[in-house]
Automatic annotation (TrEMBL):
Pfam families: XdhC_CoxI. Residues 20-87 form the XdhC- CoxI domain. This is Putative sulfurylase small subunit (Molybdopterin cytosine dinucleotide biosynthesis). InterPro entries: MoCofactor_Util/Proc, XdhC_CoxI. It comes from the Bacteria.
């Protein structure tokens, strides 16, 4: 399995998504749509995920990527997009690592 450490971090996740889809991979795109407080990535940041769990990009600098990747697997399988919200006031905050504060909303959709 590929992972972010093996890919060029300077490459645009949208271009990588396009390459992956051209090679036949099922792909989901996670996009930061809103942030509050100390969220580490701005709105418009992207994380691309394939059905095998390979990923490129970032929506939170590592705070919620694991949870987003898990949700993306279901989005790829079902074809149904979803809006995810994480934050220090949310019961998942400590599980996903946003203990530094802030909130983040991430839209996950299947591409192709």
């Amino acid at each position: 399995m590929e992972n972010a450490a093996h890919l060029d971090a300077s490459r645009d996740p949208l271009l990588i998504a396009e390459e992956w889809m051209k090679s036949g991979r099922d792909v989901a795109l996670a996009t930061v749509v809103e942030t509050w407080g100390s969220a580490p990535r701005p709105a418009g940041s992207h994380l691309v995920i394939d059905a095998e769990g390979n990923f490129q990009g970032s929506v939170s600098g590592g705070c919620v990527e694991g949870a987003v990747i898990a949700e993306a697997a279901d989005v790829i399988e079902s074809g149904r997009p979803r809006m995810l919200e994480f934050g220090v006031a949310d019961e998942t905050a400590w599980r996903v690592g946003l203990s530094c504060g802030g909130r983040i909303r991430v839209y996950v959709e299947r591409l192709g």
